[in-house]
Specification:
Layout (H helix, E strand, L loop, with lengths): L3 H7 L5 H8 L6 E3 L5 E3 L2 H5 L6 E7 L9 H14 L4 E5 L4 H5 L7 E2 L2 E4 L1 H5 L5 H21 L6 E6 L3 E3 L9 E3 L10 E3 L1 E3 L4 H8 L3 H10 L1 E5 L4 E3 L6 H8 L6 E5 L4 E4 L14 H10 L2 E5 L4 H16 L5 E6 L1 H7 L12 H21 L4 E6 L6 H13 L3 E5 L1 H4 L5 H11 L15 H13 L3 E4 L1 H12 L7 E4 L19 E10 L4 E6 L18 E2 L5 E2 L3
Parallel strand pairs: 3-16, 3-17, 4-15, 4-16, 8-11, 17-18, 18-19, 20-22, 21-23
Antiparallel strand pairs: 1-2, 2-14, 5-6, 6-14, 7-12, 9-10, 12-13, 14-15, 22-23, 24-25
Helix pairs in contact: 4-17, 7-8, 7-10, 9-10, 13-14, 14-15
Length: 555
Amino acid sequence: MRSDIEIAQSVTMRPIGEIAKTAGVPEEYLEQYGGYKAKVDYRLLREMTSPDGKLILVTAINPTPAGEGKTTTTVGLADALRRLGKNAVVALREPSLGPVFGVKGGAAGGGYAQVVPMEDINLHFTGDFHAIGAANNLLAAMLDNHIQQGNALGIDVKRITWKRCVDMNDRQLRNIVDGLGGRMQGVPREDGFDITVASEVMAVLCLSESIPDLKARLGRMVVAYTFDGKPVTASDLKADGAMTALLKDALKPNLVQTLEGTPAFIHGGPFANIAHGCNSVMATRMAMRLGDYAVTEAGFGADLGAEKFFDIKCRYAGLKPNAAVLVATVRALKHHGGAAKQDLNKENLSALEAGLPNLLRHAQNLRDVFGLPCVVAINAFPTDTPAELDTVRKWCRSAGIRVALSEVWAKGGAGGIELAEETLRLCEAENHFRFAYDAQEPIQEKLDHIVRRVYHGTGAVLTPAARRQAQELDALGYGNLPVCMAKTQYSLSDDPSLLGAPDGFAVTVRNLKVSAGAGFLVALTGEILTMPGLPKSPAAERIDVDETGRISGLF
C-alpha cells in the first residue's frame, strides 16, 4: 500500500494558472508562489458580483486514535461533486508544523483525496504562519519594551496575558522566566510560549474581512491589565499598524488543487479548542463566490469545531450553511464503544453498537439544535465488514438520519458519488439554521446553553476564580461576546475518558478570558495545552529528503 506522500508525488499537477482559470480567478488577482500555489488578492471579493454558492460543512464525531478522515472526506466530496458536473470549490485550514512533526504527520487529506503540493502545504507553504508568528512576537517585544522604557501605561507585570509563540511542539517553552541579565536586559518576569495556531493573531486573521477590519481587530486585542485593572490593548501600545503591515499578504487566501484538479483554498488554522478551529472567512467567501458549492470543514468533532463554526464564524460573517456532513468510521465508533486500539480491525458488533450513540448525538445536534439538514458519511476502511456497515446504516435510518458510504480514500472522487448525490439533495432541503444561544445573554446562560444543548450535560459550573473573571469581563463590556469553549476534543464532556454519549455530567469552567480582537470569550475547562509537546517517537524522526529535494516520510 502506497503512503499518502507517494500517492501525491505520483500525480502530475496542473499549473496553478490553469487551476485559477478553472476557478474563475482573473489573472490580475493571482500572485503565484512557484508553479503550483498562489495567493488570490482579496480585491476579487469586492469586485465580483456573482451570487454566493451553497455552503457545505464537513464535521465529525469526537476524534479517536483510529482517525475519522474529515479532511479526506472534504476533498473527496468536492471531487465527487465536480464529477457530477457541479462547480465545487474546497476551503480548508492550513496545517501547523507542530502536529506535522509531532504525532499527526501530514494534514492535507489522505489516499486519493488529497490537496497538493502536499509537502509544501504541510511545511512552510506561502509563509502565512511565519507572518502570524512575527506579528505576535512583535507585539510581545513592544509590550516588554514599553515596560522597560518607563511603563507609562502602568502595566502590572503580573497581569500580562500576552505570550510569545512558535509554530512547533516545544513543551520546554510553556513556562519560562525572561528579562534576566541586568537592568538593561529587560524586566525579569514569568513568561511563556504558545504554538502559533493558538495565538489570537491567528484567530483575528481568520475572522477578518479586509485590511481595515484586520487592523481594528488587532488593535482591540488585550495584552495585559494595569495596576488598577484596566485592559491594555495592542492599540494602546501603538503596535496595530506594524502588525497589519506584517500580515497584509498573509490575509490573502492561498489557492492550490486536489489530486483531481479541483480548486482548493487553504488559509489559516486556529486551534479548534482554544479558538474557533476554522479556515478564514476570506477563503470561505472566495470559495462561495467562485463555486456553486463550497465545501469546508471545522476542527475536531462537531461539539467543538461545528459549534464554533456556527456560533462564532457564521454569526460574525453572516454565513448560512446549507448542509452538514458528519464523518465517522466503523473503527472510531468501536473505540467509542470500548474496543481496544489493537482490536479495531476485528469485527465487533457489540462495541460498534455501544459507540454509535456518539454518532447519533452529533447528528441530532446538527439537525435539532442547529436546524441543518445532515448526512452521515461512513468513511470506509478495508477492514470494515458488511455486517458492521449495515449496522451503522440501520442505526442512522432508525433515527431518521441520512447516511452514505464514502470510499474517497481508496477511489478519490469516484468513491464519493453516493455521498455527493445525498449532499446535493440536502442542499435543496428545508433549512432552519440557527445558533445554539443568543450572544446577548449573560455569560453563565451562554455556557449553560452550550453544555446542555450541544454536550447534553447538566450545565456549566464556574470555579470561584472564573465567577470573578465573568463579573470583571462583564463590567469591562465584554459580556455580550460569543463563547469559545476550550475543552477536550475526545469527549462530549470535559473528561477525555468519557467516550460515547455520556449524560448527567457538569462542565467545570476554571478560567475565563477575553479574545477581544477575535471577538469571543474563552472558557477554559480541564487541562488544555496551548503549547503541545512532542511524543516519545515524533513523526519528525521519519521525515527525510534526498539529494534531489524529494521529501519522504511525511505521511
